[in-house]
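URGENT: need a sanity check before tomorrow's submission.

F., can you look over the Aldehyde dehydrogenase family protein record below? I want to be sure the sequence and structure line up before it goes out.
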Amino acid sequence: MTERQRLFIGGAWVEPEDGHHPVVDPATEGIAGWAPEASRDQVHAACAAAREAFGPWSRTAPDERAAVLARAAEVIRRNLVPYAELAQAESGATTRTARGMQVGVAAARFRRYARVEPVEQPLPPQINEAGPFGPAAVVGAVAERRPVGVVTCITSYNNPWANPAGKVAPALAMGNTVVVKPAPQDPLSVYRMAEALQEAGAPPGVVNVVSGSRPEVGEAAVDCPEVDMVSFTGSTAVGQRIAEVCGRSMKRQLMELGGKGAALVFDDADLDAAVAGIGTTFSFYSGQICTAPTRVIAQRGVYDRLVSELADNARRLTVGDPRTPGTVVGPVISAAHRDRVEAYVESGRKEGARLVAGGERPPCDRGFYVAPTLLADCTPDMRVVREEIFGPVVVVVPFEDEEEGIALAGATDYGLIDYVWSRDVARAFRVARRLRAGQVGVNTVGRNMEAPFGGFKKSGVGRDVGAYALHAYSELQAIVWPG
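C-alpha cells as predicted:
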C-alpha cells in the first residue's frame, strides 16, 4: 500500500512533520501501510484542540452525544469487512477474530455507550443542628458525575479496534474529549475509527489521533498540560513510567497493565472444559492477551492427564496464514516479539521445564509465527512462570491441596484475571474469593461485559467496562442545598 496516512487533529487531516513509518503485516512481512510520525508540537496541538472542544462538548445534551456514538457504531458495522481486512493486515489476526472480536466488538462498544444513563444519585437529606454554620436545617444533597476533561488514550497493539473503542466511547459519552495515541505496530485502524466518528457528526477537536514509533510521541501525549487524564493499556513497566508523570501534575489515571493469569484445576474439574478454556491461550490472538490463563496450576490427581490433553490440543491447532479458512493460530505482532517469546521458551527449558508441545518455529516461508507451546513440570521460581510472555505459551505447575494451590496462584506481581475449575461449586467460589485478582472465572474463560474490569497489584489501577467505564471517565461532584 502506497497511501500515507495523515494525522487527525482538530477535525482536520494533517501532514505529519516527522514523516511516516511502515506498518508491517505480521503474516506476510509486507507493508500494510504507512503511519504518520507526529512531532511533539503536533501532539500538543491535538491536546489543545481537545481542550478547545471540551467546553461545548461537555455541555452537549447526553442524548445528543449518545446519538453520535450510535451513528458511529452504524458506520463501523457498515464497513466491517474492509475495516477487518485492515485490522488483519496490521495485527495478524485471523479473519474470524478480526471481524468478530476486533471490529465487531468495537461497534458493540459504541452501541453500548450510546445508552443514556443517569449521572445523578440523590442522597438522603441530613438534619443539621444549629451551630457555627447557621440555624438548624434539613440539608439535601446529590452526587453527580462530571467529565474529567481532556483524556489521552494510549492503546495496545493486540486489538486495534476493541481496545480504543473501549476507551473512546465511554469517555465521549461522559462529555470528555480525547487524544488517541495508538500502538505503533497497528495504528491505521484507529484513524478509520476517527473517520467513522467524523462521519457520525463528532465536532472538530472532540476526537484527535496522533501516532508515532518513537517514545517521544506518547510522552508528549502524557505530559502535555492540557491533558487531565491518561487511559493506558500496555505493559506494567510503561504504565509505571506514565504513572510517575501523571503523579507530578495529579492527572487522573486508568491503567490496564500486564497479567499472568493462574488457572487452578482441581482433581474434580471437568477436564474437557478446562482444556478448552486454557487452550484459548494458544489460539486467541496467538496468546497476545493479558487475560489468558497462561499459568496452569494443576492438582496432582489430574496433572498427568491435563498435561497430555493440553499437549494434544496444542498439536491439533492449525498455524499459518490468518486469511486462510481453518487457520486457528496466526502470527505474533513482529519479528522482535517472536524472538522474545522463543527466548522465554528456551529459558524455561534451561531452567528445567519439560517441553511437551511446540518449541520449534512453524515451517512458514514468511511471517512471525510461534508454535503453540506447552511447558510442564515447572516451578514457581522459573521466569516462564513469573513473567508475562504474551504469546501462545502455557506453563504447568503441580499442587497438592487447596492451600498450596491458592498460594501458588498468588505468587506473582500480577493480579488481572485468574480462573478456577472444579465441579465443587462451593469450593470454586471459596477459592475465587481468596485470589488476589480483579476478576475470577469459575469454570469459564468467558466475560460478562458489564462486569468491572481491571487488576490488583501491578496489573493496573482503576476499573472500566459497562457502567464502570462511565465512572472511570468522570469525577464526582456533590451539590448540597437547604431543604
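My own read: The two ends are 66 Å apart (CA to CA). Residues 262-449 form a domain with the Aldehyde Dehydrogenase; Chain A, domain 2 fold (CATH 3.40.309.10). If you see anything odd, call me.
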